[in-house]
Amino acid sequence: MTDAPRRASGGSARRSAPSRQYRERVEGSIEARVSHEVDRWLAWLPRWRPGTHRARVRLCQRCFGSPILVAGGLDVDVPHPVQHAFSMRMKGIIDTAVDDYTARNLPMLHREIRLAEERKARRPYRAGEGLEPEFLGLDLDPAPAPDPPFLFTLSGLEADAAAENAEPAPRPFTLEEKEALREEVRLADEFAKQLGRRICVELAQHRERIGVAVARIVEPQIAELLADLDRELDAPGWP
Asked: Which has the closest alpha carbon to 160: 124, 193, 122?
């Protein structure tokens, strides 16, 4: 479905990969962006505390098996909130660069994204809006439990608000538009993968200070949590 005017396919749809000049400009700025976001993550890390209220019941699709976490040395024996805060900051670099590339080179996809964002912005309630990177992409609500259901959930409120303010569906794509949009999506995905690989290369320069921070800030808190658990299990009143 789309609001976009019809466009001819063919040569205009089959756009080439990013130009050499544009790719060089982006790659030249990736080093600075990665360094900046690693700095921000390191500044946030002292505020992290181990969670004790509930465990995740589903694997995080953004973090599980992430090559970015592997490149940063955060893929093994690191709590998920620490991983997630890092991976979402790196994802922000990719998202910003892909948005810029799309706006410059992929007019049909850019228009569709802009229209979708405008429709979303007109909703009266957006539960995930304005969150810090460490909270982006996480479940908004607790996992369902066998107890009596919650009176409400944030995702439920968002769905109700969207239903009450539903807009007419945009007109369908023509076959030519589908082909053109599919090609632009492919180019955007290809560009995002190139950026991801570039970020992984750059993170090799930061592995040492990332590891030092984890050893200094994260590991002592985990050790203290495990020691508290041992003391509680050894207490005389423990069943």
From this structure: 124
